[in-house]
Write a structure and sequence with these properties.
The protein is an alpha+beta fold and 694 residues long. The chain has 25 helices and 20 strands. The two termini are 47 Å apart.
């Protein structure tokens, strides 16, 4: 039977939605609608589509079934022997079951189960029209869209990101009748607020798209982004420049407009004496302007502003933008002059008045810990630059108390770098001040300067250790101090630099410095921090397309030096794919693990207690291999180590075949278990074969 389908169109018209909310709001609208249709057994031939502008959220579905699929219910009731008495008359159990299922007692059937005969009802429930389901479900879908912040307005108790002004909802060319946020759904929409504000009736998706196009609304966010790029290029070209390559700003501006146009304005050349980062931030962060560069890559005294309307007189619009930006740049120029009255390092004392975290003290105390920890790291990886690392660590947070960063918080680090350069510090120290904040986000650019990497690792280790020490660990729902991102950043920097650092030593040092400022359970915190970093490494490897069993097998031992773990995984993967010994070796050591995993003690091995040849043979094989395997591991030649370990398989198998491990003699049993524990620890230095599914 041919399934009848129709189009679904939903538009929620609102006051201006914040640019940063739009993408996730659309994504959630699509997800919620998809879940609703699936749960209600409504098929969709294609994928649901979502579009949006600052004033509207739109959902489109083509090939949506006009009717729910029928539902077959099969319900088992009480046992037959309980449902009928000796005369075959229905008991209260049968009558109650029939009533609950909405059928007569005569319609009850029986079904044979392993436990005997039971009453049984099979019902075919016809599907409802999709129009009815949508009318019931859409108000809930609209209300369930999660927003960072929601509003309530007037007497409407319906929370939403912004007040709702209209709701257009059509299915099969008919209005889906419902009410949400105090608004009744209908078949009308509106164009651009200023250039096409007329209310217009639409009948289907194609008609709707045409109405918006004529009403100066570019509905598709991706298309608006392409328009923003085009008009920004054209505007900058009018002064012989090019706009900043800034995809994030392009997306933001596109989400602020329904019909993007652009103008190119200018400012006094004297403002070019401000650090580039300050100029760009003043334009980008506050005004959403694009900086303009010349052919040499230098900033020009110009900017591109994207507007939401076509302008009648560009000169008037430009003057308005220029007036606003001039005030911003004048403030920045004033802050620069005020800040430069004091050397950057003099501001270190000011950090004593800044609370880093209530339980962890001041920012000054944090800087002191970071400086000492950075010195500790530098002594291992940059011994000739220890003093420079310490200086960079001391300067790294000094810009937090400058007028410039207080006004432009996103410039922390960049202002410190610029001020340090103006004061004549070496370039690598200046770069270290800025780059110790990198990466700024997951997968972001890493520090290019080694000083920046050392200070960055130290800073993040102190943050993680401090938060764990005072119970501010991430939960499944929240990570307010971005500790997961910090841990991944540390791992990435260690791998990127190739520094063979011990995480045990680093965490231990960070916690020992912290212990001088606050009280906490050192051992418990040490274990939790190390395990936390280990889990972040594990997740990073899983996202790098390593199989979960391979990752688990490779990081099974003590988590310490990550530099060798990726080569270990690669070589272990090669061993699992190419060696005929992999499966039998894995099975052998699974047997070993099954014996020792229930042991609560580690037993010493006494050769004098060996009674069987198999015990002696395994001991001698282990002794013969030990030094060679340790040498391979030290050189990260894990494949060679695995090849040597295969020689253990036969003597281990012989031990199981010829010797009673769990004998009644306590001394012999403990000695034999200790022998297997020793072999297991030896093998775990490379891999935990019990993690493989064989």
């Amino acid at each position: 039977m041919k399934i009848m389908t129709a189009e679904l169109l939903l538009e929620i018209g609102t006051e201006e939605i914040p640019a940063g909310y739009l993408e996730n709001g659309l994504r959630e609208l699509k997800r919620l609608a998809g879940v609703c249709l699936k749960e209600n057994r409504i098929d969709v031939a294609g994928d649901l589509q979502v579009y949006g502008t600052p004033r509207r959220l739109v959902l489109m579905g083509r090939g949506v079934s006009k009717k729910q699929q029928n539902l077959t219910l099969e319900v088992t009731g009480p046992p037959k022997k309980v449902a009928y008495d000796e005369s075959g008359n229905p008991t209260r159990a049968a009558i109650g079951f029939a009533k609950k299922q909405g059928v007569s007692v005569g319609e009850l059937q029986t079904i044979e189960t392993p436990k005997g005969e039971y009453l049984y009802v099979k019902q075919e429930i016809p599907g409802k029209p999709t129009l009815e389901v949508l009318a019931e479900s859409l108000p809930g879908i609209i209300g369930e869209i999660p927003w960072p912040k929601s509003m309530r307005w007037g007497e409407v108790g319906f929370p939403f990101v912004r007040p709702v002004h209209w709701i257009l909802c059509l299915f099969d060319d008919c209005v889906v009748p419902f009410k949400a946020a105090g608004v009744e759904s209908n078949s009308t929409t509106f164009g651009h607020r200023f250039m096409g504000p007329e209310e217009t009736v639409v009948s289907n998706i194609a008609d709707y798209q045409k109405v918006l196009e004529n009403g100066f609304v570019i509905l598709d966010p991706l298309k608006r982004q392409r328009v923003v790029e085009k008009v920004a290029l054209e505007a900058a070209a009018s002064v012989g420049g090019v706009p900043a390559d800034d995809p994030e700003l392009v997306q933001t501006v596109a989400n602020l407009t329904e019909y993007p146009t652009a103008v190119c304005g200018g400012f006094e050349k004297g403002f070019l004496e401000l650090p580039d980062a300050v100029l760009i931030t003043a334009m980008r962060e506050h005004q959403k302007y694009f900086a303009v560069y010349d052919e040499k890559g230098s900033l020009m005294p110009n900017f591109v502003a994207v507007n939401n309307t076509r302008t009648r007189d560009e000169s008037v619009v430009c003057r308005g933008h220029e007036r606003v930006l001039r005030a911003r740049l004048s403030d920045a120029d004033f802050f620069l002059k005020e800040d430069r009255k004091r050397p950057l390092l003099d501001r270190l004392e000011d950090l004593k008045q800044v609370i880093y975290q209530a339980q962890l003290g001041t920012s000054f105390a944090k800087v002191m810990r970071v400086e000492t920890l950075a010195e500790y790291i530098a002594e291992q990886v940059l011994p000739s630059q220890v003093d420079r690392v310490k200086l960079a660590a001391r300067l790294a947070k000094c810009d937090l108390v400058t007028h410039m960063v207080i006004e432009f918080p996103s410039l922390q680090g960049a202002v410190g770098k610029a001020y340090a350069a103006l004061e004549g510090y070496d370039e690598d120290i200046c770069s270290g001040i800025h780059e110790h904040y990198l990466p700024l986000k997951a997968g972001g650019a890493l520090p290019q300067s080694k000083i920046g990497a050392v200070v960055g690792i130290a800073d993040r280790l102190d943050t993680i250790s401090g938060c764990f020490a005072v119970g501010l660990e991430p939960t499944g729902k929240a990570d307010p101090f971005a500790l997961r991102r910090h841990a991944l950043a540390i791992i990435r920097m260690v791998e990127d630099t190739g520094w063979d650092l011990s995480f045990k030593e680093l965490v231990g040092k960070a916690l020992s410095l912290l212990a001088g400022d606050i009280e906490f359970d050192f051992d418990a915190t040490f274990a939790r921090v190390l395990d936390f970093i280990r889990e972040r490494y594990k997740n990073m490897m899983l996202r790098s397309n390593y199989g979960s069993d391979l990752v688990e097998a490779s990081i099974c031992g003590e988590f310490d030096r990550v530099l060798s773990l990726r080569p270990k995984m690669e070589q272990l993967k090669e061993f699992t794919l190419s060696s005929d010994e992999f499966t039998p070796l894995a099975l052998t050591f699974k047997r070993v693990n099954n014996i020792i995993k229930k042991q609560t003690r580690v037993f010493e091995v006494n050769r004098d207690l060996f009674r069987e040849d198999a015990e002696k043979q395994l001991w001698e094989t282990y002794q013969a291999l030990k030094d060679d395997v340790d040498g391979c591991i030290e050189k990260s030649a894990f494949l060679d180590a695995l090849g040597l370990m295969t020689k253990l398989r036969t003597p281990v198998d012989q031990l199981f075949d010829e010797v009673e491990i769990l004998t009644g003699d306590d001394a012999l049993r403990e000695n034999r278990v200790g022998l297997l524990q020793m072999i297991s620890k030896f093998v775990l230095a490379v891999a935990d074969f019990s993690k493989f599914s064989i």
